[in-house]
Amino acid sequence: MFKxxxxxxxxxxxxxxxxxxxxxxxxxxxxxxxxxxxxxDYDFGSEFASYRVDENGFVDLIMxxxxxxxxxxxxxxxxxxxxxxxxxxxxxxGPACKVSGW
Length: 102
What we know:
The protein has a three-stranded mixed beta sheet with strand order 1-2-3. It is α+β, with helices and mostly antiparallel strands. It has one domain (2-94). The chain is elongated, with a radius of gyration of 20 Å. It is built from three helices and three strands. Strand 1 and strand 2 form a beta hairpin. Helix content is 55%, strand content 20%.
């Protein structure tokens, strides 16, 4: 009987504690996926942007210094309006992009 009680107590703890950790990881991975999808919509997105997503879905985005203002504004607006992204801190202070046509 004692083993059964210990089993159920351990099982219940295992079910409740990791659930909060999964929720944080889920928020972070959802925001990360959202940023990746937004950047994918722009050719060579990985060439002119780098970012970090924290566990709360907050994005720190650094764009290339020669990113056109209209593209920078579009990307920033899409990230700010995305439901999976909590907030965005962005700048155009990265190294210049070597994509032709800019």
